[in-house]
Queue: 3 jobs
Job 1
Amino acid sequence: HYITFVGEKMNYEEHKALSNKIDLSSVISQIEGETTYRGAHYEIVSKVAYLIGVQKNIFEKDNNSLIYKFIEKSEKTVFIVDCENSDPYALCAAIRNLDQSKLSKIEKIILYDDVHAASAWEMLVQYIDIPVEYIRIERLKDNKSLSDIKVAARTCIEFYKNGAESFVLASSDSDYWGLIEELPEAKFFVMIEHEKSSHALKQALLSHDIPFCHIDDFYTGGAEDIKEDAIKREFTRLLSDALELNLHSALDEVLEHTRIFMTESEKGNYIKRHVRPSILMDIEDDNVRLRYAGK
């Protein structure tokens, strides 16, 4: 019954414990008397993992501790985000919920933003205190993203040329396992999402002792402001694209069709006195329509 207790969401250490195919009953019997009600499932899994020798060091009890420990062991860390395969709001909330004083070794966050990714990524720089480098990737073919090769190439540059030794990689794309495997000298911490990451990726990370956490396990309420601003920004763009109209150009077209002549001065006065006050917007059944109500 203890195993079903932990069947929902598990972090790196919990996965690690349960991935070892051994008989846990004897180990659990040794510790069940020590477990308190609060966080009982995690305490059991952590102690089981410790007793069976999965990991010899101290177990972290949350995602924050996992990241802190990874960063503390590093001299220079770069945070690289594959925007196409990450959630901007979950990641923003995760970063903002971390203790900023412990993130000083993160030199920068590099965002590789694909044209098909969420529009909020370029706003992230306004909401976090770590330096952000935003890179927009254009596609050569509409059905082929270049994000994975761009991220891989930049990671190699940061490691071999710029002296970064550790990388926090935010992506649920299993293609990056090739990068991690071919760069064994570098240290990686991977941030994935429950629904987007495959079982095969998690097993590969576990079997090679690559720490990871789930971004969507962090408190998502920390991103409500960026969500609201993203909606406002996108609505502004959509309304501008749909309703953008220059009154002088519109009047020129009207005069051409009606074969009426006005001087430039007359056009200016007509727009000011008649056109501007007469453009109304009607909203009916969530449909928006502009109409001219001039007399």
Note: The CA atoms of residues 32 and 44 lie 7 Å apart.
Job 2
Amino acid sequence: LDDAAAIQAALDGLQPSQWLVFPAGTYHQSKRLVVRTPGAVLWSEGATLHATNPQDQAVMLAADGASIYNFTLTAVTGARLTTPWQSRIAVYDRADRTTHLRGNVIRGNRLLHGAPGSATANSASAAGIIVYRADAFLVAGNEVRRSLADGIHVTAGSRNGRVLGNTVRETGDDMIAMVSYSGSGDWRSETAQSLAAIGSAERDKQLVRNVLIAGNDVEDSLMLIRTATYRGEHGFGQWLSAMERHGVAVNVGSYLGATTVRGYAMGRMEGAPSAPQLDTMRAVVRNAMKDGAFG
């Protein structure tokens, strides 16, 4: 089943500010759906959009005022990916666009996953929701679960927006992220200083600013597992086993933190460890490596 061509034809036939209403049911999309009409609204009356192509699965709001309300969205995913069209909902036109999209709304949508280990174990190949170079946008009342990248990702100079009352769970990366890159787009080398050093025109394109983030409910169940108390010399192995029992959205591995080891053996004490404390640290590290730590 594939409804992508029919849906895209309906979208392309919209006049400015018209609505496309989806009756209850499941609609299959094998590729991105692009809303190019200003002010167009996608409205769900109990509809589910199911994406079948991990490489190309977004609903893309590519015109001023284009908006989407009240859908349930599911997806087939594989490895973690990165582009807007591999997200599930994107405010995005094209990467070289120099002006901002304006007035887009993403509200009341549910990005849900299937059973762990299944093809639908995650809700999006990349971020759940991406907002790219947008102005006066609203992302509100959505639910994002198990996206392979960020839950909600706002970037590329987006400004004057609101991210309100969303529920985000178990994402592959940040829950809600405001991200400013300069020309390299390489997060490993970007700093506030490097962004400030670029020209004003480039900075205006890239610096995310004046975005209100309020009333969101974010929780990573893996974080709850991480913060649970697993004591003893095999606590690391107990923690890994707990994650495995819980079921994870992506493959995971962990290093054993030096501060964690010190805190286990010494609490908040300052100074050098005593000989017994050092022996405890050695035992914890040795057992963690046996139990599955990467390093």
Note: Residues 111 and 144 are 5 Å apart (CA to CA).
Job 3
Amino acid sequence: TVHLEVLEVAGGRIAGEAEAAGAAGEVLAVEARLLDEVARILNLAERKAAPAPRAPGQETTLAVLYFQNLSPDAKLDPLQVGLTDMLITHLQYRPGIAVVEREELNRILNELKLGLSPLADESQQARVGRMLGAEVMLLGSFLVVGDSLRFDAHLVATDTGLLLQAVSAQGTRDDMEVAVSSLADQVGAALAVGPSTSHESKRLGKTSLEAALHYSRGMLSLNTSGNYQEALQELERCVYLAPENEGALLHLGLAYQNTVRDYEKAAQMFTRILALGPGEGLSLIHISEPTRPY
């Protein structure tokens, strides 16, 4: 059983109390009930800002920031990269949303010397959002306990700092894709945009936590340490475990192409992406430009 009190900072008055109970293996369920109780106490539903109405054809620019690892295992920290990429893959094909590319996010965070660190306060969030040209930011966290995982996130308006919507999803270690898809659906609904018009489910396929970790470590090796051999090994392992994950296939192809100059293997990866469904123009570009830098 977990019991907590919500105190007002100014007067020290108890605004409310929340309590939730569960068995030892129900940590995520207990946390979810506590969050719901705290939201009720704080009247978050009444204090949320409504998304601004959009003109037909007008897009909302969204920045997906790195989710923070709340799990007791620090070895899951690299998952911040994989989870962000999976969400971006889901959201970028939805009409009405223009998602800031992860490369641009990295550039701004590195410029501010933040890396994967959480943003300290609302002013820092607003600054990052403005530099990214984003109207809305998605910030969140993930928690892995046993075979279960949970994502919690909130959409924040960059200009006002007001909460637009809180979203959450649960899944299992065997298939993160279900929880990521649910989270993306909730974000789309909160921003009042339509469902994806592409074959986005084929772009990721069934992706386990283990596969996502290999992908994340591979991308960190490519973009941070420059250890290309380690990156290739990690991405190859991810593709083995998740053969329909477009992100892993794409970046493995680029790594073959631009680091070890193995154009034959690169073409194989890009061809596998094309087999997943129509609209894979990015892969065609890379096939036609074999010397493009990583």
Note: The beta strands are 2-7, 14-20, 60-64, 68-69, 97-99, 136-145, 148-157, 163-172.
